[in-house]
Amino acid sequence: MAFKFESLKIWQRALEYSLSISELTKGFPKIEQFELASQMRRAGDSICLNIAEGSAGNSKKEFAQFLRYSRRSLIETVGCLIVAKRKGYVEEKIFNEVYSEAEELSKMISGFINSLR
Predict the structure, then answer these.
(1) How far apart are CA 98 and CA 110, in angstroms?
(2) What is the largest CA-CA distance in the chain?
(3) Mean of pLDDT over the chain
(4) Does the 8-115 domain belong in CATH 1.20.1440.60?
(5) pLDDT at residue 117 in the model
(6) At residue 57, does pLDDT exceed 90?
């Protein structure tokens, strides 16, 4: 692996979550593909992209800031997930799986931020 972030478990987990979000939004109605689905995919991608970008920083403090950006993007995907469920685009079982995945990733991000202090 050529780049530091590729070996980080948190980045690998964030990438998997991003792929889950992307797959989930494929089933959204056409009217939502450029609205809610797009917003959700961008936020999902932003999680792992901010981890990658932050890993190249000059300090732990800077990396922690990018991790906080990642966590905010994660929370944005959860907000979108709840909206999608309320609109009937996501079945309960899938919602629970993705929501649980988000909870775990949030804990990982928070733990990583704490470890940088």
Answers:
(1) 18
(2) 45
(3) 96
(4) yes
(5) 86
(6) no
